[in-house]
Specification:
Layout lengths: L9 H12 L5 H8 L3 H14 L2 E7 L5 E7 L1 H43 L1
Antiparallel strand pairs: 1-2
Helix pairs in contact: 1-4, 2-3
């Protein structure tokens, strides 16, 4: 997880969002919600932990087992905001480009319809 690229920043961003909302979710649940393998989820979590964006805390569960909570650090919160801004800016650019393509295609179809009559 080096410098974020359009392809690489989506999974860490989504993981940070999920962890902020559901710090007590298991890796299995996170994996299911992300739509990636358990191994990939573990890899992403490990990378976030190594960067210091997330820390692990133990907590007691009712079934007498310890659970883990993944808590975003102040650095993790800052990077989540940065990734969100980057992702949003890219999606807004894509939206503008897509609207332009749609307009062009509609004009082309309208011109073909006119010439067919």
């Amino acid at each position: 997880m080096g410098t974020p690229t359009p392809e690489s920043d989506i999974a860490p961003l989504e993981l940070l969002r999920l962890l902020e909302e559901h710090p007590d979710w298991s890796q299995r649940e996170l994996s299911r919600r992300l739509g990636v393998s358990l191994g990939k989820t573990h890899y992403l979590l490990k990378a976030l932990l190594e960067k210091g964006w997330v820390k692990v805390q133990n907590f007691g569960r009712s079934d007498r087992k310890l659970g883990y909570a993944y808590v975003l650090t102040p650095s993790g919160l800052r990077h989540k905001v940065m990734l969100t801004r980057s992702f949003l800016a890219r999606k807004e650019r894509e939206y503008v480009e897509l609207r332009a393509q749609i307009s062009t295609l509609r004009r082309e179809l309208a011109q073909r319809d006119e010439s067919a009559h």
